[in-house]
Specification:
209 residues, two-stranded parallel sheet
Amino acid sequence: RNVVYYCHLAKRANDLKYLDVDDLDHSMTYNPLYTSDPTIAFNRAFLTFFPNRAEENPHFLKLASMFLSNLLPILIKEVKIATFTDFSQIIVNEISTFKSLIYLCRRHMNEFPAQASYFKNWIEKDPVTRENELVGLMASIQRFVSRPWSNLINVRKPQIIMEDVIAKKSIFLFATSAMANLEDSRPLAVLVLNDILTNVGKYLKSNKQ
């Protein structure tokens, strides 16, 4: 409230970008995966899904990494901006059929032959094996699509775009302290900070003066 008050006092109320996943009625929408670069989207998602990689099984960690890194180029080619809902649909909801994955591979196999070839092996696996090998990734994805605040971050046209926030010198207010489930604070904070870091670096590189 104090931040909002001072924004009004400084006549910068329109510059305020407010994200609070515990205040769904007032928070703006924000997609932490908002980028056309598959590598950036992968890094944000993977680092958030597996923050304690030293404690993970190396075999399953590598499977999750390879799956996501190969999925994002063809996914972004198809939908432009990826969301966690896309991950959930392709990896969780359709684990037994891989319907959307098969469609993406067939549609973009000429442009992404390496990805199509990689997923051919997955498509040929039986559903039980798929689920057993991707169970960690599936569980990580669920956090971002099953919470009350998930609708705020699973949008292709968010109200808050960090590149614009930095370029326009807007005021970004990110609140998580009041969240009912404090376990959600860390992964969301990691996503937001990674987004800020990437775009600050991009801004400084293009505005060296």
